[in-house]
């Protein structure tokens, strides 16, 4: 993402601060120890971590913004940029790897013309790789949003992706 | 109702044991762990609920995972005086027929995996035998008599698939919380610790440290002490912790309660990885249920012992499974490990004495207290007691979770329980211990699996992932794969790990790309020693293991990559190509139809041609051909 491109959600008026208050105060007691879970809740709501929200959290729970950015960038589930409507995660855990997970990855990358972590221009798909989602018995596994597609072959990728608008 | 004594527990137990084993209705128990759901169990569940809506004679319930993931969705149907039957592969399309068939005594025998009997090893002398009075079905084996189950002994997994994980009553019906109440009412902390020490239980999170000894050390340090459960399960390919949390969450709470009594703690934390939302959901329900019965919270069972449990989730960082990183993450910080001059049992979470154990470790604790340390120590080997759960995955016919006594041979696990390698391929190696472990070749198939034997061959027990590899797995690629994983997951604090792993990965990538040079293997070995010796935490010190074991046992594969520029397994794209074997091809057109690049041409019943310029080596034709006519050259 180009630095100069305005990101949706970068403007404070796009954030519902009342709702943030609810999350930070009611669900997580303004407790800095809950920072990771607060960020998860916010990402659950906005699909990524909007910057004004991070600034707001810093004030609310009295933690330096640098630490919040630290946490937001250290853990792989967090994204500081908007993500697509559908999150396609290919499992590259060992069990999936030996059953052809790499080939599945290549097919997805080719079908969507994306590499790991990227989003299509129309915001339809974000593609990412994960390392084991605990359904190893069904490898290779692709997770699209909440749906787990097990024993998926490279040949079935295009068709499966079609189902997600 | 609040539970105040063993008597209260017994009352609840008897009442629900009846519902569990002698229901007034036909009970349909659907295995609804994540793996089952992914295989279609949720759709089956919903279908059953709508189909039999309003029928008071049928109750549709959920259970955890019985372990035989290959055959999921698994569905058990039972009724008083009727057989207890486990059906396999019961998808949405089959569920209604399976239930109707059962009710009409017209069992679809082809769909039956076996007849259910409880895992007896733990509860046989304690509860009235639930098998009594159950009608038998001729010609259908009991689960424990089929090869997948007959070498297993379920302790940690004793309730997974046998109870509804959201029901504390069903847990109590199977003697849940009895061990805890016994400890609460009758034992001193020292006595509990003594029992755990005597049982020989070693931590199941990877290191294999003595649990009793860890508790004893933690109890000695002053300050507010914490009991923490490591449910980060970062080892890719391992999912036993997930299965226990999803299938038997009260077992973990009870193990932690006993630990809390032993070390003197009133606060517990469970750190669950972000990828396991269902485990979190089931834990939250379990905590509420246990609180309802007064088994968790303030003044438990009317005593002055209080214990509160909080669930925290990770956010996708492998290194957070390491004890000091986990505790930093629990504090809401970046999960970076620290040097352990001072151990976490002395100064851990919030700078206080903290006892961290793995999920499976806690799962064994109530069982040990119930049956006694001698019983537990009677299983396993000299230095590794009890059982271990392994996730048997990869190139294996019967994938699933298996709990076996320590000391069983790899051959028994892979070939008897796992039923060998599919598609008549040849076994190549078993990978254990995840990114910290190694690949064990065929010559060690008779190895007795325990902590020490695995270490002797250069691997480790780890958390119990067992990934089977066949002739189509390239061992150089596997080494490269693990280093790529570790490079991503290294926290970057210390030089040897951050730079060393990166350098090793570059060399391995060169080898896989056909740019390997003489001397690369030796350089890898040299770097390995440096990283092992000088890294800050366990991630770095064990990182070279996958490389070292593959060099040790599969040096010839490295050499053919470097010298002959060939990848014999057909994985490294720069080092092989596919060809069509003129003898074997019968012109069925399947490969040509499936090829996404239209690189294969040929008429029906005539030899096909593969155009090398168009081929992207995606492997689709190789997988598709039923006549082994696509060959790796
Ligand atoms: C890089 C790294 C990752 C680890 N990941 C896990 C894990 O996912 N789960 C776990 O239980 N232990 C993990 N461990 C081991 C823990 O540090 C710790 O030894 C263990 O949780 C202690 O519990 P136990 O004594 O019951 O085994 C990991 C260790 C290292 C160095
Ligand atoms: S390795 Fe892919 S789900 Fe576990």
Automatic annotation (TrEMBL), chain A:
Q: Which cofactor does it need?
A: [2Fe-2S] cluster
What does the record's cofactor remark say about binding?
A: Binds 1 [2Fe-2S] cluster.
Q: A GO molecular-function term, please? A: 2 iron, 2 sulfur cluster binding
What the entry lists under InterPro entries is as follows: NADP_DH_HndA-like, NuoE-like, NuoE_dom, NuoE_N, Thioredoxin-like_sf
Q: Which residues bind [2Fe-2S] cluster?
A: 91, 96, 132, 136
Q: Name one Pfam family in it.
A: 2Fe-2S_thioredx
Alphabetically sorted, this entry's keywords are: 2Fe-2S, Iron, Iron-sulfur, Metal-binding
User: Superkingdom of the source?
Assistant: Bacteria
Iron-sulfur as UniProt keyword: yes
PANTHER family, per the entry? BIFURCATING [FEFE] HYDROGENASE GAMMA SUBUNIT (PTHR43342:SF1), NADH-QUINONE OXIDOREDUCTASE, E SUBUNIT (PTHR43342)
Protein family according to the UniProt entry: Belongs to the complex I 24 kDa subunit family.
Listed name of the protein: NAD(P)H-dependent oxidoreductase subunit E
Species of the source = Candidatus Desulfacyla euxinica
TrEMBL record, chain B:
Pfam (any one): Fer4_10
| GO MF entries | 4 iron, 4 sulfur cluster binding; FMN binding; metal ion binding; NADH dehydrogenase (ubiquinone) activity
InterPro entries membership: 4Fe4S_Fe-S-bd (IPR017896), 4Fe4S_Fe_S_CS (IPR017900), NADH-UbQ_OxRdtase_51kDa_CS (IPR001949), Nuo51_FMN-bd (IPR011538), Nuo51_FMN-bd_sf (IPR037225), Nuop51_4Fe4S-bd (IPR019575), Nuop51_4Fe4S-bd_sf (IPR037207), Thioredoxin-like_sf (IPR036249)
Specify the 4Fe-4S ferredoxin-type domain's residue ranges: 576-605, 606-633
Which UniProt keyword terms apply here? Answer: 4Fe-4S, Iron, Iron-sulfur, Metal-binding
Q: What Gene3D superfamilies is this protein classified in?
A: 3.10.20.600, 3.30.70.20, 6.10.250.1450, Glutaredoxin (3.40.30.10), NADH-ubiquinone oxidoreductase 51kDa subunit (3.40.50.11540), NADH-ubiquinone oxidoreductase 51kDa subunit, iron-sulphur binding domain (1.20.1440.230)
Phosphoprotein listed as a keyword: no
Q: Which domain of life is it from?
A: Bacteria
For the keyword 4Fe-4S, the answer is yes
Which family is it part of?
Belongs to the complex I 51 kDa subunit family.
PANTHER family, per database record:
NADH-QUINONE OXIDOREDUCTASE SUBUNIT F
Its recorded name reads 4Fe-4S binding protein
Q: In which organism is this protein found?
A: Candidatus Desulfacyla euxinica
């Amino acid at each position: 993402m180009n630095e100069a491109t305005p990101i949706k959600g970068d403007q404070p008026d796009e954030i519902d601060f009342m709702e943030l208050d609810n999350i930070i105060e009611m669900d997580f007691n303004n407790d800095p120890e809950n920072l990771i879970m607060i960020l998860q809740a916010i990402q659950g709501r906005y699909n990524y971590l909007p910057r004004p929200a991070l600034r707001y959290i810093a004030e609310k729970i009295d933690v330096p913004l640098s630490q919040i950015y630290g946490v937001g960038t250290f853990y792989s589930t967090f994204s500081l940029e908007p993500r697509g409507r559908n999150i396609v995660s290919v499992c590259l855990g060992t069990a999936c790897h030996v059953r052809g997970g790499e080939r599945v990855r290549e097919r997805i990358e080719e079908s969507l013309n994306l590499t790991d972590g990227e989003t299509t221009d129309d915001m339809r798909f974000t593609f990412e790789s994960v390392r084991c989602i605990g359904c190893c018995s069904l490898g290779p596994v692709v997770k699209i949003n909440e749906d787990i597609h097990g024993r998926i072959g490279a040949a079935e990728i295009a068709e499966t992706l079609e189902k997600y608008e | 109702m609040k539970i105040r004594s063993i008597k209260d527990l017994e009352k609840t137990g008897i009442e629900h044991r009846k519902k569990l084993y002698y229901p007034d209705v036909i009970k349909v128990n659907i295995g609804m762990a994540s793996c089952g759901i992914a295989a279609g169990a949720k759709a089956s569940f919903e279908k059953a609920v709508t189909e039999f809506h309003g029928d008071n004679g049928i109750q549709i319930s959920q259970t955890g995972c019985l372990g035989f993931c290959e055959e999921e969705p698994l569905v058990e149907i039972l009724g008083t005086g009727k057989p207890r039957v486990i059906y396999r592969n019961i998808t949405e399309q089959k569920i209604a027929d399976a239930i109707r068939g059962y009710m009409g005594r017209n069992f679809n025998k082809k769909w039956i995996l076996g007849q259910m009997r409880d895992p007896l090893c733990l509860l046989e002398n304690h509860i009235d035998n639930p098998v009594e009075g159950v009608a038998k079905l001729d010609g259908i084996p009991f689960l424990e008599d089929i090869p997948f189950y007959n070498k297993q002994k379920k302790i940690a997994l004793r309730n997974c698939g046998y109870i509804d994980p959201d029901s504390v009553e069903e847990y109590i019906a199977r003697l849940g919380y009895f061990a805890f109440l016994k400890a609460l009412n009758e034992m001193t902390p020292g006595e509990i610790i003594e029992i755990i020490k005597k049982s020989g239980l070693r931590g199941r999170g990877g290191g294999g440290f003595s649990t009793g000894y860890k508790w004893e050390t933690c109890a000695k340090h002053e300050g507010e002490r914490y009991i923490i459960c490591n449910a980060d399960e970062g080892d890719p390919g391992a999912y036993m912790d997930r299965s226990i949390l999803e299938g038997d969450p009260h077992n973990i709470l009870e193990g932690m309660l006993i630990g809390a009594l032993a070390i003197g703690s009133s606060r517990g934390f469970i750190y669950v990885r972000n990828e396991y939302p269902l485990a979190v959901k089931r834990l939250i329900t379990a905590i509420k249920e246990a609180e309802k019965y007064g088994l968790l919270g303030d003044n438990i069972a009317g005593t002055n012992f209080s214990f509160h449990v909080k669930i925290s989730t990770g956010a996708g960082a492998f290194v957070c499974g390491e004890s000091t990183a986990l505790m930093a993450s629990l504090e809401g910080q970046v999960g970076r490990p620290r040097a352990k001059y001072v151990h976490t049992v002395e100064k851990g979470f919030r700078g206080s004495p903290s006892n961290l154990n793995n999920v499976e470790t806690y799962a064994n604790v109530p069982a040990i207290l119930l049956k006694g340390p001698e019983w537990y120590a009677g299983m396993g080997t000299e230095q590794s007691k009890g059982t271990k759960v392994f996730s048997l995955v990869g190139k294996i016919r019967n994938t699933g979770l298996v709990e076996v006594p320590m000391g069983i041979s790899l051959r028994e696990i892979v070939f008897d329980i796992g039923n060998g390698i599919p598609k008549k391929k040849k076994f190549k190696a078993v990978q254990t211990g995840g990114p910290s472990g190694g690949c064990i070749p065929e010559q060690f198939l008779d190895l007795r699996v325990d902590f020490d034997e695995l270490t002797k061959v250069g691997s480790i027990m780890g958390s119990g992932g067992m990934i089977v590899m066949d002739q189509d797995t390239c061992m150089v690629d596997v080494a490269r794969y693990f280093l790529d994983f570790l490079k991503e997951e290294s926290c970057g604090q210390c030089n040897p790990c951050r730079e060393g792993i990166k350098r090793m990965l570059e060399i391995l990538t060169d080898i896989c790309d056909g740019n390997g040079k003489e001397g690369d293997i030796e350089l890898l070995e040299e770097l390995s020693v440096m990283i092992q010796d000088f890294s800050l935490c366990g991630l770095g010190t064990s990182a070279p293991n996958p490389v070292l074991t593959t060099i040790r046992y599969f040096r010839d594969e490295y050499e053919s990559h470097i010298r002959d520029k060939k990848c014999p397994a057909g994985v490294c794209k720069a080092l092989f190509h596919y060809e069509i074997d003129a003898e074997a091809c019968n012109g069925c057109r399947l490969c040509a139809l499936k090829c996404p690049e239209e690189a294969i041409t040929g008429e029906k019943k005539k030899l096909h041609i593969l155009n090398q310029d168009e081929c992207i080596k995606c492997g689709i034709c190789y997988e598709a051909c039923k006549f082994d006519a696509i060959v790796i050259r």
